[in-house]
Amino acid sequence: MADFHQNGNITTLHNLRQRPLGSLDHEISVIAESRKVSLILPCLYSELEGPALGNILEELAQVPYLHRIIIGLDRADEAQFLKAREFFSRLPQEHVVIWNDSPRMLEMQSRLVELGLAPQEPGKGKNVWSCIGYLIACADSSIMAIHDCDIVTYNREMLARLIYPVVNPAFPYQMSKGFYPRIGDGKLNGRVTRLLVSPLLIALKRVIGDRDYLDYLRSFRYPLSGEFAMRTPILPDLRIPSDWGLEIGVLSEAWRNLAPKSVCQVEISDAYDHKHQDLSPEDASKGLSRMSVDICKAIFRKLAADGTVFTPNIFRTLKATYYRSALDLLEGYYNDAKMNGLELDRHKEEKSIEMFAENILLAGQIFLENPHETPFIPTWNRVHSADMSFLSDMHRAVAADLAEFTPPSGS
To answer: What molecular functions are annotated in GO for this chain (predicted)?
Structure first.
């Protein structure tokens, strides 16, 4: 049985295991007749060949309330785009595959470059941003949900629980964030959240003092989850990070744009597992090493924007404080895993902590050397202000790709 604890900063909606999925689906379906729900799936072509996406589509095919599914396809050539079209054709809902590397979409990218508004690097952030732009251009949905395409434990109740807080018109929430325990194959997972983000926030509070923003981030049980839902009126002003600080960046945007009572977290699964990134301690541009640097920079930038002054001495102190805090938390994680019959390799965990400690210092150095770095992609309101026809032209470009590149019948 789940607990019912509230942290007092944001609302936590628990899974008390009393309500059948059919009841939840029915209520959402009734509401969705007047408040349409769209789902965004940021996808790499390689995920079509992975172990997760086939099951995700089988589950989504049974969802009765989805108005539209928008698939953002990255790293695909023409033949792969055609295969992706066929792969997703099993979905009974209206759906669209956006070929982000098509000549037409690259031409749209060139228009943004000329305006100085183009995303600085490819990746999940740019993919999500493009899909949101397409959704805004459609102008027919009240709710947007996003989740990843590599969830090997996916079931459709995750989506129902994720969107319910923002679908229900009697609730005040503009954004909901999913959380869950990260366990799989008999192991305790979620290294970056457990071993970096949680102890880093503790260390920051000890080094720079109380900050409402730190209390806000600490309120989320899984701040790095890729599952969130929003009411669409807030999307045009949403700034999406282009680096691996996407999840922290979106939470920071919610902090900037919304009242805390408009944000909630919701328990969407008892067990969640997805693709695991390599640690890559030898290369700070890859894997969890790159992710940890980007996450640290995202937090440092937000604190600086709120008036915190950082110096080299502060970052050196932060590294030492983080290291001690992470080791203290590791003791608790180990005991928790042991009590529940899960594996946890303390040597590997401590190696991760050592790498994260070095990367906190690296992120601090990068931040101090580039204080005006702006990895955020411009808001869609700004793009529309600079080029009022861009969104409609992008919508037509996607439609033209779908019309021109059609899988042969019976393939």
So the answer is: transferase activity
pLDDT at res. 280: 56
| Neighbouring residues of 31: CB distance < 8 A, sequence distance ≥ 6 | 65, 167, 168, 169
Query: What is the pLDDT at residue 286?
Result: 61
Lookup: tokens for 248:
């922290």
Q: Terminus-to-terminus CA distance in the chain, angstroms?
A: 48
Contact between 111 and 129 under an 8 Å Cβ cutoff? The reply is no
Main-chain dihedrals φ then ψ at residue 174, nearest 5 degrees: -95, -20
Backbone angles phi, psi at 13, to 5 degrees: -105, 115
Phi then psi for residue 324, to 5 deg, are -65, -40
Q: Helices 198-208 & 346-369, crossing angle to 10 degrees?
A: 50
Amino acid identity for residue 90 in this structure? R
Of the candidates 318, 57, 336, 9, the residue with the CA atom closest to the CA atom of residue 182: 336
Rounded distance, CA 123 to CA 241, Å? 10
CA angle (85, 89, 92) in 5-degree steps: 145
Residue 92 has pLDDT above 90, yes or no: yes
DSSP label at residue 198: H
**Cα–Cα dist 303/305, whole Å:** 5
Task: Give the span between the Cα atoms of 236 and 137, in whole angstroms.
Answer: 10
CA 147 to CA 178: how far, in whole Å?
9
Q: What is the mean pLDDT of the chain?
A: 93
Q: What is the pLDDT of residues 93-120, one digit of tens each?
A: 999 999 999 999 999 999 999 999 999 8
Q: How many CA atoms lie within 13 A of 315 on its CB side?
A: 20
